Amino acid sequence: MSDAPLFEISGLHVRTVEGQSEILKGVDLTIGVGEVHALMGPNGSGKSTLASALLGSPEYEVTSGAIRLLGEDITDWPADVRGKAGMFLAFQYPQEIPGVSVINFMRQALSARKQIDLSVLELRLAIMEWMERLEMDPSFADRYLNEGFSGGEKKRNEILQMAILEPEIAILDETDSGLDIDALKVVASGVRAVKAERPRLGVLAITHYQRLLTELQPDRVHVLIDGRIVESGGPELADRLEKEGYERFGS
Predict the structure, then answer these.
(1) pLDDT digits over 154-163, tens only?
(2) DSSP structural state of residue 169
(3) Is 181 exposed, middle or buried (0-12, 13-18, 19+ CB in 10 A)?
(4) Whole-model pTM?
(5) Domains located in the chain, CATH noted
(6) What is the pLDDT of residues 230-244, one digit of tens each?
(7) How far apart are the C-alpha atoms of 213 and 156, rounded to whole Å?
(8) How far is Cα 79 from Cα 54, in angstroms, rounded to an integer?
(9) Do the Cβ atoms of 87 and 169 come closer than 8 Å?
(10) Which end of the chain is more exposed for a tag (fewer CB within 10 A), N or C?
(11) Average confidence (pLDDT) over 12-31
């Protein structure tokens, strides 16, 4: 389906697997090839639930609606299959994985994603180039994944993974959370650098704050309140939210 959108969410309803009340109540969102979209909303609006549901987290159940990647319905696909197909999630709180080095993690992930088996040397050269761009110490390639990393280092490592894995769609779940302004600029410039290398990449940046959007300059901004997108617009919508807050939407 060559004319299909890159990524499409249609009437998505989601609840926890424990069967508690719905968290997402009919989310509709379409991202075209190469577009950067931002999703904003207050605490408890369902932003992180949406990110987790899009990547197939077993903690959540899709009760109705559909998720499509390049026209293909992936709603029932497990998380690993979605990742192999080209979906990427940068976590709000990246997990530490003792005993697994960054470079070995990348090698396994790239092998699963692209069915290619790069040598450690080939992969190291690619990683070092991106580490320099992201202002990361080269020694981090041999450290255990995220173990002892600062918050900013963890977030930069997520962008490093995104650069190496070359996904079709990248979902950034509050990547700006806990970053000072300098680290935020480095991470945002890393995202822009990945986009420059792969202009067809779609990005959904989920955030509380307008400051990330100042750096990323999204094509579209969406406001999520109580499990629904209540308004969409251009970058000016983020400026309005910064001035007026979410109260005007009844949050």
Answers:
(1) 888 888 889 9
(2) E
(3) exposed
(4) 0.89
(5) 7-249 (3.40.50.300)
(6) 999 998 898 888 888
(7) 17
(8) 9
(9) yes
(10) N
(11) 91
